[in-house]
């Protein structure tokens, strides 16, 4: 895994992802930009549903989109929200990142004024369960 040192242009790209959110119920728009190992951009947004639990978060939208297109090596994921402080991925998204990304992949959390917090997948889900736990 190459470390994706945060690039300013990722801010513009993650806002594009966020603009695609479908949030008639919460109006809380989340964008996720998945940067692939070869610097492609995969966009994810939260897609809500009248049956609330059927909602898909932005982070999982991006990861499922990448895998569906046979793209599996990532440099980083950037997540943006309009919250006061950079918002933190939900437990389900952390578990899916644990499954599909390297433990040391950077996760950049960004708020509406561009404050960026860097964590890794392992920071967000320490001692997380994975296939290794079934060996
Ligand atoms: O990790 C998360 C947490 C929440 N949301 C979305 C789901 C829902 O549409 C809205 C409010 O929970 O935010 C995400 O996209 N990612
Ligand atoms: Zn989530």
UniProtKB/TrEMBL annotation:
Keywords: Hydrolase, Metal-binding, Zinc. Its EC number is 3.5.4.5. It comes from the Bacteria. It holds the Pfam family dCMP_cyt_deam_1. Its cofactor is Zn(2+). GO terms for molecular function: cytidine deaminase activity. It catalyses: cytidine + H2O + H(+) = uridine + NH4(+); 2'-deoxycytidine + H2O + H(+) = 2'-deoxyuridine + NH4(+). The keyword Flavoprotein does not apply. Residues 5-132 form the CMP/dCMP-type deaminase domain. The keyword Metal-binding applies. InterPro entries: APOBEC/CMP_deaminase_Zn-bd, CMP_dCMP_dom, Cyt/Deoxycyt_deaminase, Cyt_deam_tetra, Cytidine_deaminase-like. Belongs to the cytidine and deoxycytidylate deaminase family. PANTHER family: CYTIDINE DEAMINASE (PTHR11644:SF2). This enzyme scavenges exogenous and endogenous cytidine and 2'-deoxycytidine for UMP synthesis. This is Cytidine deaminase. It comes from Salinicoccus sesuvii. The gene is cdd.
């Amino acid at each position: 895994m190459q470390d994706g040192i945060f690039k300013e242009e990722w801010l513009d790209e993650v806002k594009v992802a966020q603009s695609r959110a479908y949030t008639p119920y919460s109006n809380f728009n989340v964008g996720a930009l998945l940067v692939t190992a070869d610097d492609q951009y995969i966009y994810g947004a939260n897609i809500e549903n009248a049956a609330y639990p059927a909602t898909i978060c932005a982070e999982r939208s991006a990861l499922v989109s990448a895998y569906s297109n046979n793209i599996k090596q990532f440099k980083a994921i950037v997540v943006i929200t309009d919250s006061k402080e950079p918002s933190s991925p939900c437990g389900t998204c952390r578990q899916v990142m644990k499954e599909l990304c390297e433990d040391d992949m950077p996760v950049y959390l960004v708020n509406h004024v561009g404050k960026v917090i860097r964590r890794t997948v392992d920071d967000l889900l320490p001692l997380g369960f994975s296939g290794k736990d079934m060996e």
